[in-house]
Amino acid sequence: MNTKATQTSESSETTETTDTAAITPFRIDIPQEQLDDLRRRLDHARLPAPLPGDDWTTGLPTGWLRELVDYWRTEYDWRSAEAELNSYPQFTTEIDGQNIYFLHVRSPEPDALPLLLTHGWPGSVVEFLDIIGPLTDPRAHGGAPADAFHLVIPALPGFGFSGPVTESGWTREKIGGAWAELMRRLGYDRYGVQGGDIGAAVSPEVARHAPDRVVGVHVNGATEIPPVSSLSDEQIADLTAAEQDRVRRIQAFMREEFGYIAIQSTRPQALGYALVDSPVGQLAWIMDKFREWTFPRSVDPDKIIDRDRLLTNAMLYWLTGTAASAAYVGYAQSPANWGAPRPNSGVPTGVIVFAHDVGIRRYSEAANTITHWVEVDRGGHFAALEEPELLTGDVRTFFRGLR
Q1: pLDDT (tens digit, 9 = 90+) per residue, 168-183?
Q2: Poorest-confidence range of 131-135, 171-175, 215-219, 260-264?
Q3: I need a surface site. Which of 8, 34, 52, 264 has the fewest CB within 10 A?
Q4: Angle 307-320/279-293 helices, nearest 10 degrees?
Q5: CA distances (Å), 93 to each of 173, 186, 367, 402, in order?
Q6: How far apart are CA 197 and CA 186, in angstroms?
Q7: How many Å apart are CA 60 and CA 370, to the nearest integer?
Q8: What span, in angstroms and rounded, lies between the C-alpha atoms of 161 and 86?
Q9: Burial level of 145, CB count in 10 A (0-12/13-18/19+)?
Q10: Which has the closest alpha carbon to 149: 180, 178, 181, 192?
Q11: Rounded CA gap, 175 and 338, in Å?
């Protein structure tokens, strides 16, 4: 798609420079004709007839999606979202032949610790908008100035303004190396990393690439997926009741929800034609996962996360036409790949397991030096969107002793 943004190589006052590669200021500026085209497509959207029951068991209920599409068409304001994103410093750089877009928000506190945040699929940098202020300027948000962070928030290769992807092989190991290079280019020789979903897989890899620079790894969810397919009855019996519940939920996921991974990891381009051409199709594909992975699952996702946030996240996929490349990259990080043995970087690692998540400590400890493990009875997969205060507090607590 003809998505445009302002990119300029400017003076040293506004351009971050490095010894090896340019880091170029970036500003989102979507042409009005692209928004007009979206409006026409929404005006003439053709939704399928409801299936029997019209409930979430077969996918998004037609009535629910129709209402969200009507809101998108008549009330949602992209220009407001665009202005919010543009209120933060944004940049691009090229790493390993791939354009990488990122936010770089420095704290007003001079001794702030740099922290790199990595999103997942079907998320984006939008996931972190509600925690930028509290993390960078805790003094203004009821926190202690000593807990401040400088934030670097890149879009994964192939996602949004980091797309489309140009080369294959963007595994979590390769992305981890690219993020280590990004932080080096920014001049940070001591920093932390944090992430969820794909970000929870990538963040420990940054530490494996730069163990002398990463002071701590914090993830929400799990660094490793428990190997449920190989667990014996005796091993399952040895787990706690909460851990056994997580094993059951992983098994249910593999039976009932694995289809989207199978499609995206084998035929992302076939799916991409539909999603890049239909905004309703793109929205439905994303929202199906937001419903399944928010907590509690019985509550519609737009009652848990603000509708405008949900739509802005979907807009980054739609406006950049990156549904296929995000799928292509996202599922280079397949469940089988997650289970492969990893070297332990030795870097202190903290995990917060929200109610929806399936992390089990004993399966994370082999490849990670777990020094902080917290389990909570609320919150889902999209922690920064669902429980921003709880996530912010845990990030502050974990890194407090590592500064």
Answers
A1: 889 999 999 999 999 9
A2: 260-264
A3: 52
A4: 130
A5: 19, 11, 31, 29
A6: 25
A7: 38
A8: 13
A9: middle
A10: 192
A11: 14
- Alpha carbon distance 355, 124 (integer Å): 22
Q: Do 348 and 204 meet the contact criterion of CB atoms below 8 Å apart?
A: no
> What would the two tokens of residue 347 be?
């870097």
Select from 249, 272, 392, 276 the least CA-distant residue to 329: 272
- Three state DSSP letters for the chain: CCCCEEECCCCCCCCCCCCCCCCEEEEECCCHHHHHHHHHHHHCCCCCCCCCCCCHHHCCCHHHHHHHHHHHHHCCCHHHHHHHHHCCCEEEEEECCEEEEEEEECCCCCCCEEEEEECCCCCCHHHHHHHHHHHHCHHHHCCCHHHCEEEEEECCCCCHHHCCCCCCCCCHHHHHHHHHHHHHHCCCCCEEEEEECHHHHHHHHHHHHCCCCEEEEEEECCCCCCCHHHCCHHHHHCCCHHHHHHHHHHHHHHHHCCHHHHHHHHCHHHHHHHHHHCHHHHHHHHHHHHHHHCCCCCCCHHHCCCHHHHHHHHHHHHHHCCHHHHHHHHCCCCHHHHCCCCCCCCCEEEEEECCCCCCCHHHHCCCCEEEEEEECCCCCCCHHHHCHHHHHHHHHHHHHCCC
Query: Is the predicted pLDDT of residue 335 greater than 70, yes or no?
Result: no
Query: Is the pTM above the cut of 0.85?
Result: yes
Q: Alpha carbon of 302 to those of 55, 69, 156, 287, 294: distances in Å?
A: 16, 12, 25, 9, 10
Averaged pLDDT of the chain: 91
Q: What is the pLDDT of residue 209?
A: 98
Q: How far apart are CA 208 and CA 79, in angstroms?
A: 40
pLDDT of residue 73: 97
| C-alpha closest to that of 253 among 274, 229, 223, 283 | 229
Tell me the per-residue pLDDT of 230-250, one tens digit each, with 9 for 90 and over: 788 888 898 898 888 888 888
The answer on pLDDT for 11 being more than 50 is: no
Helix axes 279-293, 259-266, angle to 10 degrees: 130
